[in-house]
Amino acid sequence: MSSFVLSTAEQEQLIEKLEIFKIRGRDKRGRKVLRIIGKFFSARILSSEVVKKYLDEKIYPRLENGPFSVVYLHTGVQRSENFPGISNLRSLYDAIPVNVKDHLEAVYFVHPGLQARLFLATFGRFLFSGGLYGKLKYVNRLEFLWEHVRRNEIEIPEFVSDHDEELEYRPMMDYGLESDHPRVYDAPNMDSPVSMYSMRCIS
């Protein structure tokens, strides 16, 4: 499989353009909100060192002086395509400055999926120190996110809203029993057990 490597400057520009990390608005407890778009956070394109540098320079200085929460959009993350990897996530978490980490009070994990839930339930406490696992709140639908975050103060990408609507009509996708790949659920022949019960990747 062919691959390509972006320069540090190109990776930083990509992070900015895609707005992978964005601080905007406040939750209903008045805390700043850091929104993270998991779909664009791919280890194939972005190195953990570049991401750390970007966070150190552009994000962490704005989170040093008070409590904040994270809205992590897991929508569209596939293990084989754009998942950053557990070791990278652990490395990034461990690199968060103590004065920032201490201010993190909640992580809203949107559209987690079955595989992500199972993985974090099994390994979350071991992978993430400092009580992060205990701050994790699963959010299956955007309507439940609005119970915690001010709706008009955070931008939700269109693909996340579209997926949320799809879940309303195909609730079994929440449990990993239906594929959300268009080629599967648009196909006329639904006799294949793979088509009907394809497990969504994580997570």
Please describe what this structure looks like.
The chain is globular and about 40 Å long. Helix 5 (113-127) links the parallel strand 4 (104-110) and strand 5. The longest helix is centred in the middle third of the chain and has 15 residues, at 113-127. It has helices spanning 8-18, 48-59, 86-94, 98-101, 113-127, 142-145, 158-169, 182-185, 193-197, and strands spanning 21-26, 32-37, 68-73, 104-110, 136-139. The protein has 9 helices and 5 strands, in the order H-E-E-H-E-H-H-E-H-E-H-H-H-H. The chain has a 5-stranded mixed sheet with strand order 1-2-3-4-5. The model is unreliable at 176-203 (pLDDT under 50). By secondary structure, it is α/β, with parallel strands linked by helices.
Blueprint (SSEs and pairs):
Blueprint: H1 8-18, E1 21-26, E2 32-37, H2 48-59, E3 68-73, H3 86-94, H4 98-101, E4 104-110, H5 113-127, E5 136-139, H6 142-145, H7 158-169, H8 182-185, H9 193-197
Parallel strand pairs: 2-3, 3-4, 4-5
Antiparallel strand pairs: 1-2
